[in-house]
Amino acid sequence: MKHKLFVYGTLKTNQPNTLLKWSCRYIGPEVIEGYKMLDMGAFPAIIPTKRRSDMVGGEVWEVSDGTLEVIDKLEGFFDEGNPRNLYNREEYETDVNGEVFVYVLNMEESNRFEYAVIEDGNWDGMMADNGGIL
Fold first, then answer.
1. CA-wise closest residue to 97 among 48, 58, 41, 40
2. Closest to 58 (Cα-Cα) out of 123, 119, 125
3. Pick among 2.102.10.10, 3.10.490.10, 3.40.50.300, 3.40.980.10: CATH of 2-118
4. Is 71 exposed, middle or buried (0-12, 13-18, 19+ CB in 10 A)?
5. What is the pTM of this model?
6. How confident is the model at residue 128 (pLDDT cuts 50, 70, 90)?
7. What is the per-residue pLDDT for 115?
8. Chain-centre distance of CA 79, in angstroms?
9. What would the mean pLDDT of 38-54 be, rounded to a whole number?
């Protein structure tokens, strides 16, 4: 089965973990509303704000079941509602690409530390040349 996945950090084009490495199909750019982006150091995260004025820019990719399982592991997603999740995989309805999956920081994790907000909602690839995690 194929899934649409919204990515906003190291999985984007020209980033160290780009989905191009896994022969995924690029669909196009996308912006999601109601989230703000946090700088976690080596990678970004997003958290919900429910304010339409808070936006995050990224890309939508088509991924297979197997690739989604690999990305789940990379993102620290074990299963829905698991308190050990670093990120939760949630569904989001976009204006352009319809329903997509998006990884959102587990709120318990976001409450543990103070993170800088990336005001423009775009990850600029601070780690684009390090070869990636995988």
1. 58
2. 123
3. 3.10.490.10
4. buried
5. 0.88
6. very low
7. 84
8. 16
9. 92
